[in-house]
Amino acid sequence: MNKLDAAIIGGSYAGLSAALALGRAMRKVLIIDAGSPCNRFAPHSHNFLTQDGESPAMISSKARVQLEKYKSVSFLNDWVDKVEGMDLGFEVQTKSGQLFSAKKLILATGVRDVLPDIQGFSDCWGKSIIHCPYCHGYEVKLETTGILADGDVAYHYAQLIRNWTKNLTLYTNGSCSLSEEQKTKIQDHSIRIIEKKIQRIEHNQGQMEALIFEDGTRETMRALYTRPHFEQSSELPKFLGCETTEMNLLKVDPFYQTTIPGVLACGDNASPLRSVANAVASGNIVGAMTNNQLTEEEFE
Ligand SMILES: Cc1cc2nc3c(=O)[nH]c(=O)nc-3n(C[C@H](O)[C@H](O)[C@H](O)COP(=O)(O)OP(=O)(O)OC[C@H]3O[C@@H](n4cnc5c(N)ncnc54)[C@H](O)[C@@H]3O)c2cc1C
Fold first, then answer.
1. Which terminus of the chain, N or C, has fewer Cβ atoms within 10 Å?
2. Which residue of 33, 39, 81 sits with most ligand 1 atoms within 8 Å of its CB, as the best mutation to test the pocket?
3. Which CATH code, of 3.10.310.10, 3.50.50.60, 3.30.360.10, 2.60.40.2080, is assigned to 4-113+229-298?
4. Average per-residue pLDDT for the chain
5. To test ligand 1's pocket by mutation, which of 20, 36, 38, 51 has the most ligand atoms within 8 angstroms of CB?
6. Are 132 and 223 in contact (CB under 8 A)?
7. DSSP secondary-structure letter at 31?
8. 223 in ligand 1 pocket by Cβ < 6 Å?
9. What is the reported pTM?
10. How far apart are CA 158 and CA 144, in angstroms?
């Protein structure tokens, strides 16, 4: 088995970006990707220079076409279900039974959003139920808009989203945990707070039309902001023993080295700033840092 310089697990924006830097450094790398980026539910991606409004899949497919000219970079469409540290590197095993050994491991595995169990929610996710105003706020500016959140997240959203629309209501899906001071501040800015339990979401092919409450009442709207819980997409960091932060992100140093030597991480799995631009930026640095580690070791 010919050893790879690096195995990149996850071949979306962060992984592809790491591969570009490594391919240009003539490093032998394999990108193994299962093809489920977190933004696959959104028809359009915004706020990434030169690709504003492009579809998420088109951005990665353009990157893959550009990567094809680097002969030391290869792709495998598969799921990695096992990784193990071994002498001077790592062994990687895929679901289809293929085995690879690599000197370095790059985790670009992303995170998985755990959507609330509300009828209609998943149909609207990424279309009219959105998490980030920088990504999708401009498209629904000035529209009748809701925020589904509670506590400090709700307060932060209220402050932020009123720059995109003044037609704003906060829904806490049950009694809220906002302090009296936070409630007053929010209401002072003409943002209503509704604490009723949500029963379902009425929509037309993912375009939100109304929230329906358990008491049978309804509120119409065009967009709803919310930040679902998320978990690491893959158990691999756990198997490797990578430490995580309080937010369940991989703990990395300023050069994206995880707490396990030779394992680097980039993109959403290690950053709360979820954006294509950030994933690409961190992947770019991880590519250079991986090459740096390899060159230093080879120079010994
Ligand atoms: C609905 C939605 C809309 C968004 N819209 C925007 C937007 O408009 N603009 C913007 O800048 N950002 C947007 N974002 C954020 C952006 O999509 C993420 O920040 C970005 O996708 C992170 O890139 P990543 O490479 O870290 O992870 P991802 O893109 O999530 O990719 C991770 C990849 O790793 C693969 N993988 C994971 N584990 C394994 C394994 N064990 N073996 C093989 N493969 C594996 C997955 O299949 C996946 O392909 C949006 C996010 C969501 C959820």
1. C
2. 39
3. 3.50.50.60
4. 97
5. 38
6. no
7. E
8. no
9. 0.96
10. 14
